[in-house]
Amino acid sequence: MLKADDRFLAIETSCDDTCAAVLRGDGTILSNVVSSQGIHAEYEGVVPELASREHLALFLPVLRQALREADSELSDLRAIAVTRGPGLIGCLLVGLAAAKGLAYGLGVPLVGVNHIEGHLRAIEGVTRIEPPFVALVASGGHTEILFVESWGRYELLGATRDDAAGEAFDKVAKLLGLGFPGGPVVDRLAAQGDATAFAFPRAWMGLESGGLDVSFSGLKTAVKHAVERHGMPTEDEARNRFVGDVCASFQAAAVEVLVAKLEVAMKQTGADRVLLSGGVACNSALRAGTAALANRVGGTAYWPTPRLCSDNAAMIGLAALPRLILGERDSLDLAAVANLDDLPFGETRV
Ligand code: KG4
Ligand code: ZN
Whose CA is nearest to atom 23 of ligand 1? Predict the structure, then answer.
């Protein structure tokens, strides 16, 4: 059973960030190291095989840095928490193998964590929010709308049928030659653009009858056609204006749908609080729209700090903590699981 001043390690390698964090049993984050793999920028998207190889190269330096920043030794660690899925299978395996080796070598418990639950728990690095509430986890790999009935009891209300929200931002940025990952740049350039310049489609996906799934592939294709039809202006000022208008119009369409879905999810569940998490939760328009929604219903909107929003290991530690405190552990046979559908999630024990 983990005590309040015991230290433990958390590891996250489900996508393209190699992450390690040291936490205390009372939930204090002592270090939270994220090494974002630069190697994918030239491909303007994550290449799974390269990502797993990079995890292998980066893991030990990241682990050493996490220990150093927490002023800790390996021998101080009383447990190991690790993401077991969902994610890229080769990437998950690197983190899981490292976690098992450390747990076995140190003779301490291993706890596997659902990555999505990690995103939900990330807020606890900032503030406590008592369920029930509605949550949107949106990143380069996920877009899920959930009802957090209590910690450990999650209902998946809706998800993307195709591209993840962050993937749509990244693909639009790629079309406009803005580099990878594109979300932060699109967000910044959108602020200088006219959101009504292009009438991009909103995929409502049965919203009027309570449908909470989303789809971004049609929107992405519409942006592609608009850019092809218009052609990229060669003159600097005209190009900047065009790019800003496309970013603003695209972002408005994506955010309008997400906020409308959250509104219906809150009505359906009776929740007056809403949590954003995942890299896309850094988006300024999404935050503003969600805060306005919460305000309209007399509730509150929450999101973690940017470091805790995007992939990181501290959130994995926070998600493992309730089980560690109860003295639970997983076996060293624990398997990595690529798909959320194959992971027990709705009834995660806490
Ligand atoms: O949670 P995260 O680090 O996990 C993944 O590796 O997917 O999220 C990264 C995603 C990227 O697609 C990135 O473009 C997007 O989050 N993102 C944003 C913003 N900041 C990051 N999307 C929109 N607006 C932002 N400000
Ligand atoms: Zn994530």
Answer: 183
Q: Say whether both 221 and 287 belong to one domain.
A: yes
Position 1 in a domain: no
Q: Quote the percentage of the chain above a pLDDT of 90.
A: 90
Is residue 2 situated within a structural domain?
Answer: no
Tell me the whole-structure pTM to 2 decimals. 0.95
Same domain as 89, residue 73: yes
- Nearest ligand to residue 183 Cα: 1
Q: Is the torsion defined by CA of 232, 189, 33, 88 positive or negative?
A: negative
pLDDT tens per residue, range 69-112 = 999 999 999 999 999 999 999 999 999 999 999 999 999 999 99
Calculate helix-pair angle for 165-175, 217-230, nearest 10 degrees.
10
Cβ < 6 A, ligand 1 pocket: 15-16, 139-141, 166, 169-170, 181-184, 187, 278-280, 282-283, 310-311
C-alpha 35/C-alpha 316 separation (Å) is 16
Q: Is 321 within the bounds of a domain?
A: yes
